[in-house]
Amino acid sequence: MRTLRSGLAALATAVVATTATLVSVATPAAAAACAYAAEPLALPAGVTSAFVTATDGRTAFAGPGTSANGRQQFVVWRDGVPEGLPPVGGSLNLTGINAQGDLIGSWSAAPGVSTPEWYHAGVRQPSGVFGNESPSLDGINAAGDIVGRISRNGVQKVAVWRAGHQAEPPVVLSTPDGFFPTTPRIGDDGSVAIFGLIGADAHAFVWAPDGTRRTLATPLGGEITRVSSVRGTRIIGSALGFGAVEWDLSGALASTPGTETTEGLAVTSAGTVLMSYRKPGEQTTVPVVATPGATWQYLPAPAGSSRAVAGTITDAGVVGGSYVDTATGKTVPVRWKCAS
C-alpha cells in the first residue's frame, strides 16, 4: 500500500488533467490588518505536555496530552480553560471535535495497530460500534456526522457514519477504481472533500451531501497535493507551484491565497486562511494567517521558543497550535489571538 509520503514524491512526474484559471496570488509583503499575540494554553493537573490538533470552529480547541508517567489523554480547552479526559495506556491521536463536545481520533496499544476513539456525551464509546473493517475516524461536523476510511476487501474506501446511526453500516462514497484516499474532511452541511492517488496521479474530489461526486479543479500548470479542511462553503488545500489553494463546494477554484512555498492548513467560513510559509532560502516554516484580499499576518513564536506550529483556526480567527519550550523540551499548546 502506498504511503502519502511516497505518493507525493511520485507527483513530481504526475500529470493531472483537470485545470482551472488562476484566481489570485497573495504576496508576503502585504500589510497586516492586526497584530497576533501568542498565548500559551494552561495544562490540566498532571499533564506535562500537549498540543492542539483540532477546533470545534467556535471557542474550543482539543488535542492529545501526556502526563509525567507517560500516559496519554485527550485535552479540551474551552475559552482557554483546560479539561483533561481520563488517561489511557498506549498512544492517542485526536482528529476532531465539534460544538457538542464529541471527540474522535484513534487509540493504539502497539505500533501499527489502532482502533477508533470516540467520546460522545462525555463518555468514551466502544470502538466496535464502527464495525470490523479497520475503520479510521478522520473528521466530525457540528451535527455529529463522522467521516473516515474503512478497508473493504483489501481496498480503502471513504465512509461516513451519520449522526445517531454510528452503529449502522456507514455510507460508502463512490470513488474511481484504484483510488487510494488520504485523510477525508467533512463540512457542517455533510459535504466531504479528499485528496488521493490513482497510481502516481493526483486526484481530489468533493461529495455533496446527497453523494454526488465532483472533481476539485486543479490550478493551470499545478498539481493538487493536499485537502486540509472544509468550513462553511470553502475547502482549503495545497497544489504544487501554487501553495495554498481554496475551492468552493462545487469544486471550482476560488482563490490561491499563498505563494508556492505555502501550505493551506485550515479556513474560516469568512475565507480567512491559515497557512504555513517557508521563506525563500530557509528550511523551516512559519504560521501565517491570510485574510480575504490577500493580507498576510505572521504569527510570532511564543516566548521561550524559536518557532511554533499552527494546526487549526476558529471562525473568529483564533489560531491553535504548539511549540517546544527550549528550556524544558516539552511541547506546549498555544493559541494566537488578534491583539489590535
UniProtKB/TrEMBL annotation:
Superkingdom of this protein's organism: Bacteria
- Alphabetically ordered keywords of this record: Signal
Q: Where is the signal peptide?
A: 1-37
Name listed for the protein in its UniProt record = Uncharacterized protein
- Originating organism: Amycolatopsis oliviviridis
